[in-house]
């Protein structure tokens, strides 16, 4: 039963671990390459695959990103824990030929650690690795493709040596479409459904909500907390999570999937000549996973609004797929160029650098767009990725509620229309005073951990929206009687974006908080949180060296975390008399035991 | 076979010399000489084979010697191969396509003597295919020198330009002709020189991954049979898998799997794209039918170099198309496509753009 006969057509199994969808996209690309070579193929996320079958597989390709601090993506965490069990026998994977392709960013210290470790562990378990681990790097001028393209070539060389039969058949050419992964079975009668908001019954949740079963939370308030005259719109949004089985502590994170706005949905349907009201049932052609949360039957409007990411910046794979449908000579030539290796520079200049959306690309290629077939919708357009926010409140202060602090993302590139963040813009547009608003969401454990001891002081540096997890921590700690709290907050102007100022003032008056503020634009010189950290060197040294204090940084990445770390190390040198090296080591030691933690985002 | 005797040692303007060379090499390839006529052992020694694409780089040769060299290479590579000949000064300007040559042979003629600059070496590395080989000869000195370098310095220069497997094949006498031309071109005064022939290879991956490819079996041998899976191991695995949600298990510390090599980050030099970087040096493209001046400008710049595509110069009809089809300098950049003839208002920002 366990030893399968070699299939008449060779099969490639591609398993991926993907956080933002890039590794998934890469996995799907190579799955299509296998299809073009007349191989059977299956592409699946690692945690969706029954790992018991791995011992009887013949050929597997692993495509894995590294995320966070050298960690595996969410959709391979279970697999990861399983693979490293000491009890797994060394020869378990002796039947397996496999290869590992890693996606990472060498500006992080733990560059591609997941791929490197996976490669070694597979070897330990007796698998034959067909070639060395591929280490794609976002830092390369040409991005991950610089490694992926030649690695794919070598991979196919090895596979054709293993399965010579695939060489005897002519591959399906790159400009011919492959069969679609899904079939849309349209219903003849268009039933007018009032319930088109995807509510599909609001069950009483018995289990803890997760990505596959989010909780449909009612939005209770959505208030702008930055001054109307301030250039940046920042909002405090609150959800009702009573009876949801959701529990969280300070430092945890809430995730949700945004929707496309009506204008974009209409334009998309027009370009592809889709009837938004059309209803369909989705069937998969080849064991692909059906997207989560689609009602049955589903309307095209619902699919486009909630599932298809049509405002993402398209990847190269999108142009490879468009090419298959194009018959217009001018457009086809351009699509071929954008799909080719030498054309990647041009593609980046056209798309990546300007952050051109998929919808805008479709408008540039009207003839090809009109030829797209509806069955390919889920092959062409990725699913909308969930976005995560640090939870900004504690149930100790706001029972049954969950609050987040959201800065609306908007910026200009050379495109005439300004670019907008999908999730922040969508959240800003929801108005609970105009009717009930419900958002499917779920909570994940965050990386920040706060000390349980009452007397341990906590020093938090959280400029801008970075203050969100610290507000949660402060509300929680004060409710628990822990009063040794220090907060460094920075923003641009005391009058414009000093959110929660009233709340902080009250805490300070009650002796529950020491607050140091830096308003960068309120005077001629720029004053940032790191300057305040330096000013308080005596206090910080006393707390850290003598009272076992914990130190936290949260907020926007780029310069701030480094500058704050530098200021902290200067404190060690100044107040503690340490040398440069010793203060470095002190910080490293603090990090190792969890007394220095940071959560920064870009 | 008719040959035109051309004075290849002509001084600049170089384009004329390049044209001549181009023509006689073409003549050569359209009617390749018989294998018997031309000595080709040296080329066979190097490992050049039929179908290869070879770039011969020269500096101040005698015309006969270069012609013979090109002929003997042509004989080996046959009709499917390609020989290109390039003067070392022209190499950077000619902008050959990346990764297009199996071989670059530089200054192999006995009376050639050039010092290869780092730009030249990088350019040679760029035009080589991954896995392709560079063979060059260069005068080297036994002592420290400003103009001429030691063999070790030459080796490091080759490595710095991104090549691997750098080996000195031979070291011989520098001919007096070569010495004379070196003196006149560089002002070199000394005389403690010899001539080194060095070989180098372009790594198999373009850039990025630093690991070597390890074959687990050769291409020609059939796949070795896999050992049978021990039934106990299989059972252990299956049991564990069925228990996958059990958190109370002992785990191997994954950090212990990594060795020093794994902890290293890629060399920053390996992360640069082979072509020149962003900004002013970025190549501008004229759209297909445009005559807003850009196509003409580009043609002026690249005169004398073979162009791969013809750009017909009809009136520009492309502005109404999307950005994908517009000129780099089109004022409508960043705006969506519109119907031809539709009135589109450019906002003041684009109009004031220089």
TrEMBL record, chain A:
Cellular localisation: Cytoplasm, Perinuclear region
Protein name: NADPH-dependent diflavin oxidoreductase 1
Chief localization: cytoplasm
Source organism: Merluccius polli (Benguela hake)
FAD-binding FR-type domain: residues covered: 212-451
Cofactor annotation: FAD; FMN
Annotated EC: 1.18.1.-
Stretches assigned to the Flavodoxin-like domain: 12-156
GO CC annotation, single: perinuclear region of cytoplasm
InterPro entries named in the record: CysJ-like_FAD-binding (IPR003097), FAD-bd_FR_type (IPR017927), Flavdoxin-like (IPR001094), Flavodoxin/NO_synth (IPR008254), Flavoprot_Pyr_Nucl_cyt_Rdtase (IPR001709), Flavoprotein-like_sf (IPR029039), FNR_nucleotide-bd (IPR039261), NADPH_Cyt_P450_Rdtase_alpha (IPR023173)
Catalysed reaction, written as an equation: 2 oxidized [2Fe-2S]-[protein] + NADPH = 2 reduced [2Fe-2S]-[protein] + NADP(+) + H(+)
Keyword Glycoprotein carried by entry: no
Binding site for FMN: 18-23, 65-68, 103-112, 138
Coiled coil feature spans: none
Subunit structure: Interacts with CIAPIN1; as part of the cytosolic iron-sulfur (Fe-S) protein assembly (CIA) machinery. Interacts with DCPS.
Broadest EC class assigned to this enzyme: oxidoreductase
Biological process per Gene Ontology, one example term: iron-sulfur cluster assembly
Function: NADPH-dependent reductase which is a central component of the cytosolic iron-sulfur (Fe-S) protein assembly (CIA) machinery. Transfers electrons from NADPH via its FAD and FMN prosthetic groups to the [2Fe-2S] cluster of CIAPIN1, another key component of the CIA machinery. In turn, this reduced cluster provides electrons for assembly of cytosolic iron-sulfur cluster proteins. It can also reduce the [2Fe-2S] cluster of CISD1 and activate this protein implicated in Fe/S cluster repair. In vitro can fully activate methionine synthase/MTR in the presence of soluble cytochrome b5/CYB5A.
UniProtKB/TrEMBL annotation, chain B:
Domain Anamorsin N-terminal: 51-210
Residues where [2Fe-2S] cluster binds: 276, 287, 290, 292
Chain spans, region Fe-S binding site B: 316-330
The protein's required cofactors: [4Fe-4S] cluster; [2Fe-2S] cluster
UniProt subcellular location: Cytoplasm; Nucleus; Mitochondrion intermembrane space
Chain location of the short sequence motif Cx2C motif 1 per the record: 316-319
Residues reported in the UniProt entry to bind [4Fe-4S] cluster: 316, 319, 327, 330
Anamorsin C-terminal domain location: 300-345
Keyword 4Fe-4S among record annotations: yes
GO biological process terms, semicolon-separated: apoptotic process; hemopoiesis; iron-sulfur cluster assembly; negative regulation of apoptotic process
Low complexity biased stretches: 268-279
GO molecular function: 2 iron, 2 sulfur cluster binding; 4 iron, 4 sulfur cluster binding; electron transfer activity; metal ion binding
Residue ranges of the motif Cx2C motif 2: 327-330
SUPFAM superfamilies membership: S-adenosyl-L-methionine-dependent methyltransferases (SSF53335)
Principal subcellular localization: cytoplasm
Positions of the UniProt region annotated as Fe-S binding site A: 276-292
Location of the region described as Disordered in the Swiss-Prot/TrEMBL record: 211-230, 258-282
GO cellular component, as recorded: mitochondrial intermembrane space; nucleus
Oligomer and partners: Monomer. Interacts with NDOR1. Interacts with CHCHD4.
Annotated family: Belongs to the anamorsin family.
Entry function: Component of the cytosolic iron-sulfur (Fe-S) protein assembly (CIA) machinery required for the maturation of extramitochondrial Fe-S proteins. Part of an electron transfer chain functioning in an early step of cytosolic Fe-S biogenesis, facilitating the de novo assembly of a [4Fe-4S] cluster on the scaffold complex NUBP1-NUBP2. Electrons are transferred to CIAPIN1 from NADPH via the FAD- and FMN-containing protein NDOR1.
UniProt remark on domains: The twin Cx2C motifs are involved in the recognition by the mitochondrial CHCHD4/MIA40-GFER/ERV1 disulfide relay system. The formation of 2 disulfide bonds in the Cx2C motifs through dithiol/disulfide exchange reactions effectively traps the protein in the mitochondrial intermembrane space.
UniProt-recorded name of the protein: Anamorsin
Species: Merluccius polli (Benguela hake)
Origin organism lineage: Eukaryota, Metazoa, Chordata, Craniata, Vertebrata
